[in-house]
């Protein structure tokens, strides 16, 4: 019983902490790309990587101000979106998918390579860059606080709070944007690109704007993550996280403003609960060690996410809140 | 391999939430090949550790042919959860040994920055190993002392070209199925890499577990791969097509399948790499301009023979013609009496079996790993896109070019970023000629 309550508490913390903010932001960006415009960006994690390392490199390597680092990260994300969009947005959807997944993996390999380690810290990554930000917290960040049976450090609490405010602001922004004429064009592109073109709109330009906007939101997610962990390491930005974000988006409901937020909270809760719960069951000997060992549990989450993605898309592509008619599910 | 370092201030949950582990070590794949092929390359030689204590240890030696043993390098061992176990320094013979609290998975990291002048890591600065009870687990780090390109009458460019050819042919074998599946069904199958992994693993299990020699094991794995491909088609993709699932939805389903299979494999097989057994000597034979191990030579020959057979099949046989017809225009093929579903099933079986063979060949040169297929997948995509998505011959030509390009690019860029070059090539192709070398304009939409 104690284990169960503990698992619930750990899962609840994860579902409200900066990890959930990270995935919510990634998924909000993907929602702009995939949910509203129909772009298949499989390299969202690359934007997060640039955002996170934008801060980390600016502050710990170049000695710049924290907020300048934020701008550097956002700028890098814009540049990446332009570079990716330029060749691929005129092509069919799966070309963008292949190009983005390749870029995400390529960037990570580049950032962790020995030759880049003078700038990025290589596989060691960078740390000690979030001091300026954490010191803004109105409470003592060195202390630990106990909320509903979960233990938070002051810094974690601050990052999570700012992160959720950011999520709320971006949701508001997305809500305003998709109600605007601009947003209606995006949705029209998703439904029928050729019809929009026939109406005299520059589809390419709209797609590019959507790619940049969603990428920047993804970069903000990366920033929240590295500030939350206090360290930036290229291997934190594995491309499986992009698909976790897709699972978040589709679970909550694509093309719904709050879909990603709900999806992130639920998915992280389920994953962390499964994780902690399984570990407890193994350490209590209820699951025999031979069947599943504690080291395997970390992989279970991806098995669950993979299975969940497949089942969702087959049986309920609109997720919890989505509208089936609105979920774009055909390639063009 | 996961989070070798920089874990300051991170909580356990935080790391847990984000730690994903696919393919952190893409460059390692080929590096090992180079280590085998290029004799002048410095190797981290395995020598039993110094300490003779009871219980589990990780041991290893850091040395290269030019620098000799390397002393005073810090070696850090952490658990799979990222908790520090212990730190040791290499002694005057370059050896290190770290006692472990018990069996399990550990990550061993060396401090690459303190390596002596002229010696660089040719791969990762960390290795993840699984230590069995009572075992002293050797850990190997590839070191390069810069003597690669000189000595032995080798011409580096030609050596790299031959390596690239071998690698490209291997990519081509794996990618033919990917391209044909795309051509016949329109599905961009992101789970194709798992066909490669599972084929290689199946062969490893037959080879090491059941003690079957490698060649029959590879043939059994190809049969298993065909069966697995058929299972994919019959159990998942045909029902989805019948339901009218859109192509984008199918694409995301394939990603879900890829995640599911990849991490299931990691749970069942573990995070370490294992070689096939009974391969015989793997000394490189000198052919004047380049060196090649017999394994690599056999790998090249098998690849060429199989690819020629595939080409003949596509060109001459009834089913081959039907495949090309379906890939070209599915409705027209159906209306001229071709049983499209049967053709697609055969394509899946062929693709699965070729991917399994590709996996075995990759396992021969780079050992068997749970994420080997996913790492190859991106290069397969590069090759298939370069050649022209959906065409069988395009996949072949494109893959060979990508393999050679990736290997030859190490002439100018460091070894551990050479895959980045390959992926960059992919993006450049998309700018210049998105339909690929052999593709047609109509396909790119």
Q: What does this entry look like structurally?
A:
The complex is a heterodimer of chains A (332) and B (445). By secondary structure, chain A is mostly helical. Chain A has one domain: ABC transporter involved in vitamin B12 uptake, BtuC (Orthogonal Bundle), CATH 1.10.3470. Chain A is built from 14 helices and four strands. Chain A has helices at 2-16, 18-37, 44-61, 66-88, 93-112, 117-120, 131-134, 154-179, 181-191, 193-198, 203-229, 240-252, 259-283, 297-315, and strands spanning 126-127, 144-147, 150-153, 231-232. The termini of chain A are far apart. In chain B, helix 3 (156-185) packs antiparallel against helix 10 (340-366) and helix 7 runs antiparallel to helix 10. Chain B has 13 helices and 13 strands. Chain B has 445 residues and is of the alpha+beta class. In chain B, a hairpin with a 3-residue loop joins strand 2 (63-64) and strand 3. Chain B folds into two domains: 42-144, Immunoglobulins (Immunoglobulin-like, Sandwich), CATH 2.60.40; 156-444, ABC transporter involved in vitamin B12 uptake, BtuC.
